[in-house]
Every structure is written in structure tokens, then in C-alpha cells.
Amino acid sequence: MKFRRWISLLLMTIAPISGCRKHPEAPKPDPLLSAFDTETDWTDAQKIIPLSYQQSQGKRIFYQQCVWCHADATPAGPSNRSNLTPVPPLLNDGATLNGESEEFMLNIITLGGSALGKSAMMPPYGKMLSTEEIRSVIAFARGVAQPTYQPPGRPASQYSAK
Amino acid sequence: MPAEEMGKITSRTRLIFAVSSVVFLGVLAISPFKDFRREWKQYKRSYLRFAQTRADTKKLLADYRPDIDQIWLPGMNVVDRCTTCHQGITQASLSDKVPQPFRAHPPIPHNVRDWGCTVCHRGQGPATEVAEAHESTLAWEQPILPIRFIQASCGTCHSADLPQTPQLTRGRELLGELNCQGCHRLPGIERPAMLGHDLTKIGTKVSREWIYKWLKEPRTIVDKDGNVAVNGYETEEEPRMPKFRLTETELRGLSGYLSVQKARAGAPYKIDARVVTAWSKNPDLIPQGELRFRQMFCSTCHSLAVIRAGETKLIGGDIGPELTKVGSKVNPDWLVTWLRDPQGYLPHTRMPRYGWSDEDLFKVTQYITTKLTDSDLLTGVPQLGQPTEDEIQLGHRLFLEKGCASCHVIEGLNPQKDFGPDLSAIGGKNASELEFGAAKIPHNLVAYIQAKLQDPVSVNPVARMPQYNWNQADLDAITIALLSMKGAPQTSALQNLVVPRKEVAFRPTGAFAEVYERYKCYTCHKFNGYGGDLAPDLTYEGSRAQRQWIVDFLKNPQTLRPTLILRMPQFNMSDKDAATLADYMTMVLQHPNANPAAVDAKQFTPTMVALGKQLYEVKFQCQSCHTIGGTGGYVGPNLTNAGGWLTPKWIEAWLKNPQSLVPDAIEPRRNFTEDEVNALTAYLMTLHQSIKPQKTASAAAARSRAAAQGAGQ
Q1: Does A160 map to a domain?
Q2: One digit per residue, pLDDT tens: chain A, 162 residues?
């Protein structure tokens, strides 16, 4: 009996030790790899917004094509935004853009401002970017919007609970 | 047992028989039970349950089959059963935050049904157990490629750089920049004409003490994060020279051997005595030298350490070495010879040959040797004196043993080629082909490559490979580039898929080549995909700019973009050189889409110009991005002098499709009609701004005429 008690004691000491495996150090994130994974909140530098794959594609296009007029700081320094009348909305301007439908956003980027009765300073990108690419830019805009963008709910069904 | 009882069935026998049959039945039952419990079947069932919890169950289960799913591509040697468990990889709705193995694959240009999985991810395709599929076993040696190295797989077929693989591109860049191809065979990495410096005359340039210090520690400070400081200043680029673990005797030997390399060193250049006597007593000498140093735009390629707000910063380019302490490093006579004719000392150097006057040369060299110095540069280095014959012999032997001649040339020594192992198939090696030594690292290829790169001695105590210092990002990038080198594709289907690297070469001949080579235009500008990317790509400059504009710019490059720090240096170019370059550009560097016959400047009528102006200002509002005469945006180039700068054929082709001329142009492609294109071109061709004094003179003359008329009335 005594022998069995010793055995169980031994097993109980060994069992927890087996859990003590040395965990490999987590690799440091690569700045090149994660450049498009997140976006710093434009109004709060402490806040990091994670991006989905589609949004990260949009971020890439935004910083190539749109940043020059729809942001206050650009990779090349000063922004062209203050130079324009009417002043174009910032990309994260949720108060202006959240209310616009997906279709409107798609159209104004594809056809340009003058096609929708807005300023002709917004050029059309329909011959340059594919619809998918434009949708990804819209997804990126929705992701960084302040106040936060709420997707429109489904149209209420006549059978849904009141 | 008694004989008469044999053959009789006793109750005891019955019992044995009954028990053994039950046991046998139980054992038999284990088999179907085990089959039912197979790992992949469990994943099949849990996917069914998981799909029930989702809103789009029907779509998720549209092609559900309860058996093993297999992608079989005989041409590529692919038998992949990964989709047996990874059932949601083509379901877009399972993209984010869905537990593995059901998550959707991020969108990629390749369809999984046409490519399989192991082509990119490695691992064992035919395996049906998690461990066997992902990890290596005794029989199967290809573990799955960790996802942070996945760009290596793109590089296996895409020898050309892809925008989606920044790490791979960086890794290949590093392999080239750090001269890895000096010792190793690396397919697709260009081998430049000059890897390390030509050391034939190194003894005339620096002292033996400086060589000693450099060999001992090419980087002076390396902090724990691998950030490198050279000569005490932070730079982003490491020196290309790695650290060879040398002993004191070896250091003395090598430095002695190198310090006597003075082959064919002629007499130093004598600056005109009149210049020296006129300037050497002048208190303005050093300030004047500094001024000339700045005016020549040395800072476009060379940086200097500057103290700004209590912090030391390097200001300037990184094409040439930083020069903060160069006055204490090099011999003054050598400096004069070098500045006059860099190629006379180093035949392949990228430093252009400037047209110095003796006066400029004297002022600038005096400035460099007086101001850009540090008396502490060689502290801690013993006084070495003249090397002995033994030391020189030892140095000569070491130079070859350590493989120095792989990168460095010394006249009379045979260059060493393929000094290190051939790495053209390193990315496809099995663990059993690698030597891990006593290193305590996981036995797989990725860990091996990283350990070898970080500390070559850790896996092989007698390694000849020198020591590099990497930060984690560069280490991963170079690992990716090495993993992408899997040798020649093994299967016919893959062979057909390999996207070859475009052969980038621009080898002009004739008078242009001589001038182009003398001014080293390719250091900053790209021609036909070949050259640096500091300055605009000039491949199609002849289509874009008018000949006279090119000549004016070459003669006085300081007129454009006055706010940049890195600017085109003032070459003091002769009229003949400028004409040669401009002629060649306008004749050869032409874009096929810019058709000179399509546009004839003479047919532009004033009506078209007026229409163009209206289109520019009202309909298309080009001023949102372009400036004309002080008003407008600054996204696109300033068009104030468009008529004196651009050719009509370029404007026309650009308006029709900017990306066909410059693939990454920001300007969107638009739907202009033919008439609109012509009108806009006509308008832009009327825009002129002259920086020549004649115009102001004529304006002044007009003013004085007007004044005279006013007085007459």
C-alpha cells in the first residue's frame, strides 16, 4: 500500500513538470508584412484599427491614388486638400460618408464628381481601377470612419417580429 | 489432461471458447471504431456541425462529400488531400475569425483546384493526419512552410519581382547588396562588375592602422536589436563588409599585406602653384571650400553627420559612403587624385568624373582635410609601423584562405569564384542533407538557414562565412529569398509556369556611352529598367521632353525643384556633352505609344487653344492637381512651362492613357474624346515660362517704351 502511495506521489510531481515546456519566443512582427494589416486611427494615434483582407487592399490603393486629396498628411508631405474648393471630405469623415450608400460611393469613384452633380475636381477612376478595387477602397473608408460606420440593416421583412 | 478426456467438450473448454470469441469480436470491433474515429472524419463531421451554426448553411454544404477530397495534378506531381479537412477554403463568407481548419483562403490570383496546396505551402499532400501533413516524419521530410515565410513560394516561380511580395523583393535586394554572390552561386541575383573595392592601390589611400581597425570591426557599434552605427552614427544600411573573426596575428598580417599594395601609383597630382599661393593664406579658404562642396551637391550621394536639436543626424544620400570623418581616414594626395579621376583609382566606381577647376579642387580638398576629421578615429589601434616580410607573407596567404579575392580584386591575384557552397537549390533541401552540428535548434530548413545567417559558427565550428548583423525583418527577408531558390523545377508543368526575370540591361555604345559612363547617369536614373531609382526614370525621356529643354537642364540642373535635398549634381557639363546626351535621348529613348506622326504642332488653332483652356479650367478642373503660374494643386507636376518642356506627342499619349507610359502614374485614365485630347494638348503647348534673362530684358524694354510713350503724350 505504501509502495502504491509513493508511486502516485511520484506521478503527481512529474505530471505538472511535463507542462513546463519552454515556449519559443514569439517572432517580432515584420513592418513590411504588417504594413497593410492595420491602420492607425486618424483621430487617435494610440488606437490601431485591424483591417480585413479587402480593407488592406483598399488601404494600398488609397495611399497610391486618393491620399493626396482625402487626407491631411501624405507620404510626400503636405496634402493638396487645403488647396481645393470645395474641400474634399477626409476619408474617415464618417459624418459625411457614413450616410452615403455603397452604390453612391461606387458610382462617384467610378464616374467622377461631375457625373453625380458634385465637384468635377473628383476625377473618374472607372477606367483605371476595377470594381473590386473600388469596393476595397470603400471597405477601407468604412473601416476607418469616425464615428464608426454601421452597415445598413437588412430591409425588414413582413414576417419579421415587430 | 488424461487421454480419455480428449475430444470431450467440458464446461471449462466452453468457457474458454466463449470468452475468447467475445474478446475476438471485441478486437474486431476496434477496427471499424478506429476507422470511425479517424482524424479527417472527425473534421468532416465537425464541419457539418459548424455549417449548421452559420446563416448560409446551404451554400457551405453545397459540395460536401463525406469521403476524402483530393486534388490530383499529375503534371505538377501534386496529390493534395488538404481540402479534406480545410473544407471552407473557397467559401468567401468564412474569411475572418473562423476557427481553423475551416477558414477561407485569402484571395490570391491562383485557383486552388488548378494548383493544389503543397506547391506553395509545402508539407505532405497525401497525408490524412494533422501531424503527418504538417510536420516532417522520418519518411516525409518537407514540413509545412511557416506562414510568415510564404512569400518564398511566390519567388519559386516568379523570378521577376511582384508588388505583393515586399519581403521577397527585399531579401533578393539584400542578397545582391551584401555581395552574397561573391562566394555563393545564387540564381537570379545579378553579379555586379565590382563587388568589393579594387585593393590594388589601397596602400596609397589609407594607413595600415586604418585597415587594421576596419578589418577588426567594420561596424563600430551594434546594439542588442542589431541596429548598426558606423563611425558612431546611425545609418540604415550596414557597411557591406562583414566581420571576419580574425585573431591579432591575422589582423597584423592582413593589414601589413594590404598596406603595401601600391601598384602603378603615379606621382600625386600637383595643383597649380599660383592657385595654392593665392588661396593658402586666405581666411576664406575653408568657408569657400564648404560652399563649393554644397554647391556641387555632394550631399545627393554622401551624407554628413549634423547636430540638430542636440541629436546627431546623418543628412544626405547613401549612394556613396558617409564622409563625416573622411579627412582623418584618407591620404590628402590620394583625395586630390581621386576627385580628379575616380575611375583611375577604382575602374568600376559609381562616382562621376566632374570637370573640376584647380581652384575648386584645392578649396574642397582643404575643406575636407580640415573640417571633416576626427582625431579620435584611430584610438585603440596599436602603432603598427612598417610590416615585416613574414607579416606580408601571412597576409597574402590569409587573403586567399579567407576568400577575400571573391569580392576584392588585387592585380596579379586570380579572382576566387564559387568559394562558398552553391545555394541555387538551398530552398528545396531536406533536413537530412543539412549539417546541424551541436546547435540546439529544431532540425528543419528554416531554422537552419536562420541559425547559419545569424551565427555561422553555431552550426559549423569551422565555417569560413563571416559574421553579419541582421535585424529580424532583414533576417526573415533574406530567409525568404533563400527559401525561394528551389533549383530547377522538377516537373514539366512547373517548368512551364516559371516566370523568367526580365533581362535588364542597357548597354549603349558610341559617343553617348562615353558621356553616360563618365557622368554615371545610371547611378540615380533608370534606363530601360536598369539603374538607380533616386531620380526620374529616363527610359522614355526622349518622348517626354523637348531637346532644347534637356540641354538647358543638363547645363543648369538647379532650376527645377529647389526645395529638394537630394538634387542632381552640378557636373560643369560642356556644351558638347550636353548635346550628345540630348541628341541620344531624343532619338533613342522613345516610347512606342507616343507617336510623333499623330500630332503636328502646326495644326493647333486658336479655337482649339481656347477650348482646351476651358476644358482644363471648367470641365475637368485639372487645376485640382496641377499648378499653372502659381495657382492650382501640387499632386501632379507644375505645368507653367508645359509648352517649353513637354512634347505634344507625349501630352497626347499621356492624356489618352497615363499608365501606358508610366505604369504607376497617379493620374487616373479618363474617357477623353479625340477632340478634347487635341484641344487640351493645344492649350498646354501654349504655356511658356522662360527663365532666360532676355524676356525680362524685353519686358523692361517694353516698360521703358511705354514710359517713353507716356512721356511723349
Answers
A1: no
A2: 567 788 877 777 776 665 555 555 665 555 666 677 788 888 888 888 888 888 888 998 998 889 989 998 887 777 888 888 889 999 988 888 988 899 999 999 999 988 888 888 899 999 889 999 999 999 999 999 988 888 876 655 555 444
CA distance B703 to chain A (A): 34
Q: Which three cell numbers stand for residue B374?
A: 576626427
Strands B627-628 and B631-632: antiparallel
Closest CA to B656 of B593, B613, B604: B593
Amino acid letter, residue B321: P
Task: Map grid coordinates 430591409 to a residue.
Answer: A155
Query: Do A120 and B619 lie within an 8 Å CB cutoff?
Result: yes
Q: B500 CB contacts (<8 Å, ≥6 apart)?
A: B159, B160
Structural domain including A58 reads 38-144
Q: Which ipTM score applies to this complex?
A: 0.71
- Which residues contact residue B368 at a Cβ distance below 8 angstroms, ignoring those fewer than 6 apart? B289, B293, B323, B326, B327, B335
Question: Would you list the DSSP string of A29-73?
Answer: PPTTTSTTTEEE-SS-TT-EEE--HHHHHHHHHIIIIIHHHHSSE
Domain membership flag for residue A123: yes
All residues of chain A having their beta carbon less than 8 Å from the beta carbon of residue B638 are none
**Reduced to 3 DSSP states, what percent helix, strand and coil does chain A have, rounded to the nearest 5?**
45, 5, 50
Closest by Cα among B688, B607, B620 to B655: B620
Q: In chain A, which residues have their Cβ closer than 8 Å to the Cβ of B634?
A: 78, 80, 83
Nearest to A138 by CA among A110, A108, A114, A102: A102
Q: Which residues of B472-488 are buried (b: 16+ CB within 10 A; e: fewer)?
A: ebbbbbbbbbbbbbbee
CATH of the domain at A132: 1.10.760.10
Closest CA to B251 of B416, B384, B162, B364: B384
Quick check: B635 and A123 CB within 8 A? no
Q: Which residues of chain B have pLDDT under 50?
A: 693-713
d(CA B50, CA B690): 73
Number of structural domains (chain A) is: 1
| Shortest CA gap A69–chain B (Å) | 8
Reading the block at residue B180, the C-alpha cell is: 552574397
Interchain CB distance below 8 Å, A120 and B621: yes
- For A30, the closest chain B residue by CA position comes to B473
Residue B492 has what pLDDT?
62
> 3-state DSSP call for residue B50?
helix
Rounded to the nearest 5 degrees, what angle is found at the Cα of B154, between the Cα atoms of B151 and B160?
115
Q: Dihedral angle at the C-alpha atoms of A21, A24, A26, A28, nearest 10 degrees?
A: 160
Cβ–Cβ below 8 Å for B472 and A33 = no
> How many of the other CB atoms lie within 10 Å of CB of B358?
18
Residue B691: count other Cβ atoms within 10 Å of its Cβ: 11
Q: Is A106 inside a domain boundary?
A: yes
Which 80-139 residues of chain A touch chain B by CB within 8 A? Answer: 80, 83-84, 114, 119-121, 123-125, 127-129
Cα(B468)–Cα(B457) distance, integer angstroms: 12
DSSP A94-111: HHHHTTS-HHHHHHHHHH
Global confidence as pTM: 0.68
Take residue B652 and report the three cell numbers written for it: 497626347
Measured in degrees and rounded to the nearest 5, phi and psi for residue B431 equal: -60, -30
Per CB-CB distance under 8 Å, the chain A contacts of B166 are 32-33, 35
Confirm whether A58 is domain-assigned. yes
Distance CA B655, CA A143 (A): 34
Q: Which of B151, B224, B615, B624 to mutate to test the interface with A (most CBs of A within 10 A)?
A: B624
Whole-angstrom distance, CA of residue B35 vs CA of residue B43:
13
